[in-house]
Amino acid sequence: MERFETQRWMSHEVARLIAIFESERRFYDEMVTLLPVPLATVGPDGAILSANQAFLREFSLKREELERKSLTAIFGDETWISALLPRETGTLATRNFAVHFTPIPRWDRGETEWMVVFTPQAAPVAAEPPPAPVAAGPDPELSANAAAVEAAQRLAGRVTHETNNLIMIASGYGREILNGLPADSPLREDVSMLLGATDRIEAMAGQLNDFSRAGRMELASHTLGDVLPSEGYEVQPGLPLGTTVLVDRAPLVAVFAALPLVAPGPLAVEGVVTEQEAVLTVKGFGMSPETLRQQFEALNKAARDGKPGAAECALTGPRLAQASVRWRVTDSAGLELHLSRTSRVPVVTAHSALVVDDQSGIRTIVRRILESRGFQVAEAGSGEEALSLLDRRREAFDLLVTDMRMPGMTGRDLADRVRFRHPSTRILFISGFTDDPSVQAGILPDRALFLSKPFHPEQFVAAVTKLVG
Question: 10 Å Cβ neighbour count for 344?
Fold first, then answer.
């Protein structure tokens, strides 16, 4: 009994600390996202890792373009290198900005990233006529919504990364031990209590994971008829319900189920389909656009106060991001949803797999799951080790399972090199970090999926089955 009370007290303290952290995270994330000055974080090579909406607006960038940009594209040359060489705070001057560089040591990887702030400064008076108007950039509301969700996901992902790995190892080994114990073993109760404590910690981290997961675990092809609500909405006649889109169906269905909670009457769904996307608009909220925007913001506080229905609606933004759906509130007080179009990927049968993760416990769990399904499995602790193994083997693996964040070569770089050698290999990315720009933007290689840690064996098997059959 005393041990149970101690566990309950520990669970309560963990929940309290998570709640405090969640409140502080929201406060600082909102400040960074809404800062009027351009701000970005960059890697040691100058690659742009993240940016606030002022940065995107100033340099006319889309969020999905960040992973292909570096400071060289911003400065026009490599003058920025001189600010990074001393590895201490420095400043560069451009025509329109004073650019401040501040190093940020990364405790998790032993590397240094840089916070780069562009402070506007008065431009010299020019005698020549003003330049021609610049073409309009990305839709500001779509960019703002994506930036706000990304900021929350990045911070929550960094905090939960190690926790997810530990939860997965404890849960996986605990279940394996429990299954191997005789039915009358006195240890079964102790192991069950440990698993129960692990499940409670995982549940308490669930709210953070709602923000940190990019949600590509169930990203797949669905028709509009599959994802639209079957009841409670008036669907526009003639809408091509057979159109195939790339979404995570579960969170999108949850959004459609929650929206009526903030509407006084029945809602309607209208839509148009282009070659690139399907644009759906939910109408009938019975309020002005500004009130509708404020409604979702107010629901965040109502959710924290425990008001019925508030939590479901307050998670609309993160759930749409998880479903790989871009969204905004229109001037006519509708909720506009942008779903990318796609075609279904052919399924093949796989027989061999390569598992790459710097955590040996994760590799062991994944290998055992695959071997129990008939796979021949090889494993490596790094991208470099995996490429060395491929050099010796020379044959293609049917499936590559790789962590995205590892010391040295990243999982994305490894996948690119494996695909260059063996284009037929299917890729399953796994990670507790979900702040990778390509993952958040839904930009994954062909015949590839993303699975967020922690996951249960059933979820892993479902992802592998969806990918390779």
Answer: 10
* CA-based nearest residue to 248, from 213, 300, 280, 196: 213
Single pTM value for the model: 0.37
Question: Could you give the number of structural domains in the chain?
Answer: 3
- Indicate if 405 and 317 belong to the same structural domain: no
Residues 438-468: tens digit of each pLDDT: 555 556 777 888 888 878 888 888 888 888 8
Rounded-to-integer distance, Cα 205 and Cα 19, Å: 10
* Boundary (domain end) residue, out of 340, 365, 380: 340
C-alpha to C-alpha distance for 416 and 235, rounded to whole angstroms: 42
Neighbours of 159 (CB within 10 A): 17
As a whole number of Å, the CA-based R_g of the chain is 24
Residue 119 lies in a domain: no
d(CA 281, CA 322): 18
Structure confidence at residue 281 (pLDDT): 94
pLDDT in tens, 280-289: 999 998 888 8
Asked if residue 325 lies in contact with residue 338, where contact means CB atoms within 8 angstroms, the answer is: yes
Task: For 208-358, list the strands marked E by DSSP.
Answer: 219-223, 233-235, 244-248, 267-273, 277-283, 326-329, 335-340, 352-356
Give me the sign of the Cα torsion angle 57, 62, 67, 72.
Answer: negative
Q: Do residues 89 and 117 lie in contact, with contact meaning Cβ atoms separated by under 8 Å?
A: no
Q: For residue range 25-77, what is the model confidence (pLDDT) as tens digits?
A: 556 666 666 677 888 888 878 888 888 888 888 888 877 777 778 888 888 77
Q: CA-to-CA distance for 245 and 272, rounded, in angstroms?
A: 13
Q: Which residues contact 268 (CB under 8 A, 6 or more apart)?
A: 233, 234, 235, 236, 282, 283, 284
CB contact set of 343 (below 8 Å; sequence gap of 6+): 221, 244
Q: Which amino acid is at 401?
A: V
Kindly state whether residues 182 and 260 are assigned to the same domain: no
